[in-house]
Here is the input.
Amino acid sequence: GDTTPIHGREPRPGGPEWIERYRGSLMNTFGDPQRVLVHGEGAQVWDADGNRYIDLLAGIAVNALGHAHPALVKAVSEQIATLGHISNFFTSPPQVELAEKLLALLGAEGKVFFANSGSEANEAALKATRRTGRTKLVVAEGSFHGRTMGALALTSKEAYRTPFEPLPGEVTWVPYGDADALRAAVDGETAAVVLEPIQGEAGVVVPPEGYLRAARDVTREHGALLWFDEVQTGVGRTGDWFAHTPSGVTPDLVTLAKGLGGGMPIGACIGVGDAGSLFGPGNHGTTFGGNPVATRAALAVIDTIERDDLLTAVDELHRLFVEEFSSIPGVVEVTGRGLLLGVVLERPVAADVMKAALDAGVIVNAPTPDRLRIAPPFVLTSQQARDAVAAIRSVLAEVLP
Ligand code: PLP
Here is the structure.
């Protein structure tokens, strides 16, 4: 790859040395890191050897504003210099402003609970569903809702679940996107239906038109909650503030994280209408949730998306990626919306493509054997997008002859 030095500094010595030290000091939950990254700017990152990468993954749909965005740096720096942390016996203006802003974007009345990650936002929502007096949950096959015990109970992948059984909860699994199966599974004992409006970890799977509406209708009919996990899809990632926005459906619970803080750890569980009152004093809590720095960062992310019209940029980049990827031999289909895309390959070589793309200076990932996931920063330039696709085109020509 390109060995552009990091701002003229000498590249730091040796990725391999850091990986050795990583092995010696970190729990092996992900296997060896692919690279040691030391710097980021816009949609690019640099490794410890000074190699440059176009980042089409953005920390898995997190860095919406890219790396080191001045607005985010300013907001976080100012806030930590003013009031960095307080306990939940108190509040601070950014926390209140962010809750109000999220409800305004959702176009609904309700209440927000702040957490520190997607899993934690989902743990809050899961606990909230218990306040209905019902325990049964209807969850889609292929779903990913996190790795903590409650969230894992709602995550379908056997390899993640089996080593940790028994998991809490009473879950009925339904095939994703099948409205009839959903109608058949929901009854008067169902506490909630839990859905990703677009499944992310499953490989960017978009449900058929009308599916979210059908989920709303059947949950309403049986007095069950409708919970959309927008951890991966929310905050502009799909070209709308929420992936469910175009469906016109109003859910009862929405969970957010990833893109919300632009890299600062924050999650949110939004209860719409009556669902905003499922928790009362003493029901739930976390030390860091709603922290002034994290909430101020999220406000800066949302403000910058609005000010710089980044949702339009997301749509434009979407069109560019679909056009460019669709013209590559060996690419069968491009799924997804906005800047959450699945590139479906004709053979299960996604892991090899991911590795070779990295060597060529492009970061993507492979959520399934035959799919690449593209989830870049919204500030990616069209030139960077074209360069990255050109690199992947060459890689595919080698890997897929
Ligand atoms: N829900 C969805 C839809 C996700 O994609 C993820 C993470 O990939 C999570 C929940 C878990 O979020 P976190 O990794 O922040 O705990």
Observations:
- The longest strand covers residues 331-337.
